Amino acid sequence: MSRVAAVILAGGLGTRLGGVRKATLKVGGARLIDLTLTALAAADTIVVSSGTIPPAALALPPGMAALPDLHPESRGPLAGLAAAAAHFLRGPQPPEIIVCAPVDTPFLPPDFLARAVAFLAAGAPAAVARYAGQAYPTTSAWRLSLLADLPRRLLANQGPASLKHLARELSAEPLEWENQPSGDPFANVNTLKDLLDLERRQRSSTASRK
Fold this sequence. Notes:
The chain is of the alpha/beta class.
């Protein structure tokens, strides 16, 4: 496997949840940040994009790097990816690939990272997860070499407006995920209903394994 870094996009303000920090919400008794860390554990290094949120408010594991947005007016997850790219490009051994995942995807497949890296190794410039026809630009993989100019462009108020636009610009290819009996593996938490639905799904999954 090529040298791989992962970035957890945790800078969302959770406005539809009343300003709750999604990273510390729990599904099945586990914090969302911890579930995402577990799913991405095979990466050589993991950082967290904290956006404009103070890192202390995310209650990150000790020693984990938190990256603020580069841009004073956040462009959401795109700003998180740009911050990660800038961080890794400054390092002594930049990774070849950055795999992104949002912090609020409790059922992120544990083999997503490996499959995304293999997809890029086969020639794709970037990959965006897709399930049942729906694309998830925040669950994606990118060649760092193609992101080298992204931080500068955002700081200059240039470049793409979102991860979706960046994916189109870089000709990202869909990484198709097969249908799951339990439901969408990339479903995330935006509202209280989402949280309750995913909690019920977790309980059902746990009960079926007993």
